[in-house]
Batch of 2 targets.
Target 1
Amino acid sequence: MIAISLQVEIDPPFAVGSASRGTPLNVVPMVNGTVTSEPGFSPSWNGKFVGTGTDFIHNDPDQKIMRLNAHVVVKDDESDALVYLSYQGIVDLTPEVKLILMGSPDAKTTDFGGSFIEMRFETGDEKLKDLEVGVFVGAGRFRVETGKPVVVEYKVSRVVRGGN
C-alpha cells in the first residue's frame, strides 16, 4: 500500500567534485516540494518544503548508478509542525535519465522503477511521531514538462510485518 507521495522540484546540480574520492560530488538543490498522504495512511499528513533541501549525489565510477543522499524540512499543512525528511537511494543512469540530467530538449518523463529510496523521518510533533518508527521505501521517476522545472516523484510505502 502506498503511504505517501513525494514531489520534489529540482534545480541543476552544482558540480563540486572531489579531490580525494574516486567519484565527484554533485549537489542538487531541492527548491520546492510536497508530501501528500494517500487515503488510509496513518498518521495522515500533508506538507510543503521549508527552505531549500539538498541532495548530495555521487555516481558510481562506471556511471551506471547514481547514489542519492537527500535532506529537507517539511512543514505540516495542518499543524505547522516541522518534519525532517531524509532519504538515501539509487537511480539507474539510463540514457533517458542522462538526457534529463543534461537538460536536453529531448528529455521525457521516465517510468517508475529506475529509482529506489529508503526514507526516514524525525519530528517533535506527537501526532506525527509514528513516522519515526516506520520503515519506508519508495520507487521514483523523473517528470519532465516543457517550460517547468524537473520534478522527481516518489511513491513511498511503509514496510509492514507479514503474517505467520
Target 2
Amino acid sequence: MHARQDPTSESHSQHRRTYPLTTRLLSSPSLSASPYFPDLVNVINRAFSHSHVHGAGYEIFPSALKRLWKPEQLGAELGSEGFCIIAFSSEGDGGHGRLVGTASAKPYHAQKAREGAGGELNLMFKRSVANKVVDSSETRDEEALPTWELLAMAVEPDLQGQGISTQLLGLALEEIKRRVAAETRIAKNGVRIFISTMKELNEEYYLKKGWMTTDERRFPRGIAGSTNAFTIVDMVRTI
C-alpha cells in the first residue's frame, strides 16, 4: 500500500538538482528497535493521509484513517526477509536531519489474505493468488524469476515533488538486485517486482517507471470507510 508518488519526479534531467538525502538500510527484525521507528511510522501515516485526501483531487479516505493501524504492522508485513530504507534530509556536516521518506520491500510469497492481518483496508491490497501475469515477457520464462514486492513507499507531504520518491525507488530496486545476486547468483537473468497500489493515485507514475498493470479490483464507496469508490491495481516490472 503506497502513498501517492511524486508525478513531477518521474524523470530527473541533468539540470534539475537532486534533493540531498542520507539513507539508512534496516532489516525487518531491527525496525522496532531503531530510534527512528516512531518517526518512520508517523511519516508513513502522514503521507498516506495526505495522498488519500488530496492526491486524486478528491477525498478517497478520511484524514483520520492510518496506513499503519499499529506500529508493529510494518514489521509484520515485511516478515523476516524484508528491508526498509529510511531517508533523511542531508546536513552540510555529513550528518542527517529530519526523516523525510521511506521505501520497503520483501520477497514475494503467494498466500491467501487472512482476516485480521492488517485490517480490512490492508487486505484489499493483497495480490490475488489467482492473479497470473499474462504478457509477452512470459516468453522469457518470467515465472521462474526471483520475485519481490514493494510495500510502503512514502514521502513527507511538504517535500513531495522534489524527486525523493524516485531516489528511494531506485535505491530499493538496487538493494533487491543485490540481495538476489548474493543469494541465488542469477540476478543477471532479472528479478520480477510486484506492486499493488491505488489506481487513482499511483498507476500513472509506475507505468512511466516501467511497470505494467496486470489486474485491477474496483471497490465501492463506503468499504473500509472510504468516502468515494476506488480501484486497486496489481502491477509488475522485470529489472
